[in-house]
Every structure is written in C-alpha cells, then in structure tokens.
Amino acid sequence: MKQIFIRGGVPLNGQVRIQGSKNAxxxxxxxxxxxxGEHEIKNCPKIADVYYMLDLIRTxxxxxYWKGRNLYINTRHLTPGPLEEKKExxxxxxxxxxxxxxxxxxxxxxxxxxxCVIGDRPVNWHISHLNKMGVFFCDSSERIRAKVSKLIGCxxxxxxxxxxxTENLIMAAVLAEGTTVIKGAAMEPEIVSLCEFLNSAxxxxxxxxxxxxxxxxxEKLHDGKIILPGDRIVAGTYAxxxxxxxxxVLLEGAPxxxxxxxxxxxxxxGGHTLLTEEGLYLHRREELCAIPYTVTEVYPGFPTxxxxxxxxxxxxxxxxxxxxxxxxxxxxxxAPELKKMGADIFIRENTAHIRGVxxxxxxxxxxxxxxxxxxLVIAGLGASGETYIAKCGHIYRGYENICRDLSELGARIYGx
Length: 416
Ligand code: EPU
Fold this sequence. Notes:
Elements: E1 4-7, E2 12-17, H1 22-31, E3 38-42, H2 48-58, E4 63-67, E5 70-74, H3 97-105, E6 107-111, H4 124-132, E7 136-137, E8 143-147, E9 155-157, H5 163-174, E10 179-183, H6 189-200, E11 204-206, E12 212-216, E13 225-227, H7 232-245, E14 247-252, H8 262-268, E15 272-276, E16 279-284, E17 294-295, H9 307-314, E18 320-324, H10 335-340, E19 344-348, E20 351-355, E21 364-366, H11 370-382, E22 386-390, H12 402-408, E23 412-415
Parallel strand pairs: 2-14, 3-13, 9-10, 17-18, 21-22
Antiparallel strand pairs: 1-22, 1-23, 3-5, 4-5, 6-8, 7-8, 10-12, 11-12, 14-16, 15-16, 18-20, 19-20
Helix pairs in contact: 1-2, 1-6, 3-5, 4-5, 5-6, 7-9, 7-11, 9-11
The protein binds uridine-diphosphate-2(N-acetylglucosaminyl) butyric acid.
Uridine-diphosphate-2(N-acetylglucosaminyl) butyric acid binds at residues 22-23, 26, 92-93, 120-126, 160, 162-165, 190, 304-305, 327-328, 370-371, 398.
C-alpha cells in the first residue's frame, strides 16, 4: 500500500491483536542459517522486512514456508554465495547475516547497508569486534567481504550497548572455538529472544538480557524453535494512537513486561491501564496531558522507535513537552510534517519542544521512514478533517497492516 487516507477525530474503541516482534524476528531469521535444520518460528510478523530477509536467506538455499502465522525454514542443505539484495529493498538488518554466515561458512559477501534516513548507521563496531575473533575484512567501499578460517572466542567490551553488534557477536560466537564474553551488551528483549532460539537449537548462551553475556562455543547446532513475543513498538504505537483520540482499547498480546517505561507515561498523559494475561487494556476519557521531559535510551529506557509516535501524540496534549533523542541523529524528520497540521514544535539540536495545541488539522503529508510514518498516522487519527499520507510503503516494513488494525478499533482509515 502506497498511500493512506484518514478521517480523524474518531475515538478508538475495541480490541486488536498485536503482531509478533519485528526486531526479534529479523536476527532469528538470519540465525537459521547458522544451524542446519528445520526451524519453527511461531507468531512471525508478515511484514515487508521479514519478506526481504526471507528473499536473502533463500539465495543461500534455505527453503521457507508459512502455515498461518508460523514460519518454517529448512537450512539443512545450503549453497553459500554472495547475498544479493533487490535494490529497492535494501535493508539495514541484512547486517545480521555477517555473524550467521561467518559462523556457518567462514565467509560472507554482503551489500554494504550504508546510512539511512534516521541518521548515520555505521558498522564500525561490527567490523572491529568480529576482527577480534579472527575475521579478515577485504577493503571495499561497496560490499562487505569477510573470511575466517576458524572463529575464536574472546572477550569483547562494547563501547555502547548496540543491539545489532551484540546480536552479530552472539551468532559469530555460537560455533566458535572456546568461550566468548560480551561485556556491556545490549539488554533489549530481542536479544533474549535470539538467545532463546539459539539455545533451543543447541547453543550454550547465558546472561541474555543482562549486560554480560557468555557464549560457550559448541560443535554443532540442530533444529530450533521459538514463539515470538508481541511487538512492543507496534503495541506502543497503537497505545499512543488511543491516547490522542481518546476511547478504550484492548491490545491483545501486547508484551506489557517489555513496556515498563511507556505504561507510566500513558498514566501521566491521562490514560488508565490494566495489565492482564490477555494484554494491555487502555482507556483515556480525561484531558490529554503533556510529558515535561522524555529521553530516548537503551532498554529498559524509553525506546527511540517510539519517539516519533510519542511526539505526534503530544501535539495536542495540554502543556509543554520536551523529548531528547540520544540514539539516532536524524529522528525528528516528522516535525515539519506535524507543523503542516498546526503543531507547535521547536527543535534545537537533539531536543524537541512541543507546545500542545487545541487541535491538529488534516493535511497532505509524506512518510519518509517507518516509525515516522506510523507517527503521521497517529497525528491523522487525532486531527480534525482528512489526512492523506503518501509514500506509506515504509510503514509496511514494520506494521503488518496498520489500516486493518486501526479499522478494527473503529478508525476511519483506508490504505491503497
Ligand atoms: N552504532 C555505531 N556503530 C556500529 C553500530 C551502531 O556507531 O557499528 C551506533 C548507531 O549509529 C546508533 C547506536 O549505535 O547511534 C545504536 O544502534 P544499534 O546498533 O543499537 O541499532 P541497530 O541494531 O542498528 C536496532 C533496531 C532499531 C532500533 C535500534 C535501537 C533492528 C532490526 N533494528 O538497530 O529498530 O532503533 O536497535 O534500539 O533490530 C526500527 O525498528 O524502526 C528500528 C530502527
């Protein structure tokens, strides 16, 4: 779907099922290449990024098929070669294939992921830390070509708890000789899911979800399986949509234990929540209130991936809100779009100041990236009148069907 139309001002009510986690799924799909086996990934989201990753792993001979929401991947008989991406689909997370391919075949030839619209996305730490395990990188500005005769476990002290670097090192270490220790590792729930999957396939990893992870190399891996948790960012996006429109929703399967920073913020904004085994009940009947200060941080801090959705929801909140972005350099690109709707936002360096306005007005907007695009949908739902959002393909990288989901909650939203 390339464009979305919204008639705003309708409170959200009802229940919707939250899809499986994108950022847990992607590294796990890469990890299936490490282990020759028949892998089962339950509750896998059917999103564009998953389809891109499946295209990539099929170039290596993986056989994939779906049964409902469950994905099956057979990686017993692979024929390794260059990982060629479709030009339009070039995806940042192909970087995870570094660790997986080096672990299984000792070589990798991959398109350079480059930067992206949310800021520079360097791969220097991926390279320097894999270097420490014995990997040799050929000098090329267009492709990453690397080889290793035997991966050797060692101690890594990360300069920053990067999610991708932690995931790549874990994958490289699983079949390496000896023990690998990652100090200052990322603690995101997606790391826990990756390790759960790899351990189910015979890996020996402890400490996932903590800052020190220990991986003891094993000889061989076998079939792996996992049930992916609900996507905490999708659940957060729909929760913030309900905050701007008002109403009451049940976000079925929302991973509430992974949303510990957002939930108190929903209360501060005027929402009421109930956390049950079913998911997250949320309603807002009172005035929407500003949040004086939010900073994006690594887990368990407030996630950068919800920064734009939060900004959109705060546009009509009473009072002044401030958001400081500390993870990515260029994640305020939606501010000019929100201003077209009447928002009062002022950006200085990495901090956005949002003065709540009485109402937003529908406008013609363009989605430049995934989370920013979803944030524009939130703004459109909260605005008076009609909003048209162009270039919505980005949104489908991470949201299965945002129009279907929000329509189930009563929104007047159409995509084509
Ligand atoms: N960084 C470097 N050098 C490196 C690697 C990272 O300087 O070699 C910097 C980045 O530029 C950034 C910071 O480290 O400033 C954090 O990046 P990180 O490596 O943690 O991010 P990532 O692994 O590339 C994943 C998610 C992102 C999410 C971030 C932060 C996936 C597929 N992507 O990216 O998700 O924002 O962690 O939580 O897991 C999204 O879903 O919209 C999304 C962008």
